[in-house]
From TrEMBL:
Name recorded for this polypeptide: UBX domain-containing protein 11
One Gene Ontology cellular component annotation held by this UniProt entry: cytoskeleton
Gene Ontology process terms (BP): proteasome-mediated ubiquitin-dependent protein catabolic process
Keyword Cytoplasm belongs to the record: yes
Domain of life of the native organism: Eukaryota
Cellular location(s): Cytoplasm, Cytoskeleton
Subunit structure and binding partners: Interacts with GNA12, GNA13, RND1, RND2 and RND3.
Function: May be involved in the reorganization of actin cytoskeleton mediated by RND1, RND2 and RND3. Promotes RHOA activation mediated by GNA12 and GNA13.
Domain (SEP): residue spans on this chain: 36-87
Annotated organism of origin: Dicaeum eximium
Keyword Cytoplasm: yes
Molecular function terms, GO-annotated: ubiquitin binding
Length: 87
């Protein structure tokens, strides 16, 4: 795994969604600014953890697909059910 490229692609994806930029959240009394909650990706020597999920070894097919999506410049397809309107 080319960790430098992986991290670069994560930075690029984050910039596409406006990392650190506040969004308007409508409330019953008006609106307020809200920052999106980050979804952590923790890299280990032998696997990853996405969000607050379970440890996933690099040999696992779902982990390989997740990393391949990022390496291809896309958000992992496994996030689509959780974020149907985008990450």
């Amino acid at each position: 795994i080319d960790f430098d490229l992986l991290l670069e692609n994560v930075k690029d994806l984050n910039s596409l969604v406006g990392e650190g930029v506040s969004q308007i959240e409508h409330t019953a009394r008006g609106a307020r600014l809200r920052r999106a909650e980050p979804l952590p990706l923790t890299l280990y020597q032998n696997g990853i953890v996405v969000g607050h999920g379970a440890f996933r070894p690099y040999q696992h097919p779902a982990t390989q697909q997740c990393l391949q999506d990022i390496m291809d410049g896309f958000w992992p397809s496994e996030l689509q059910p959780r974020f149907p309107d985008g990450v």
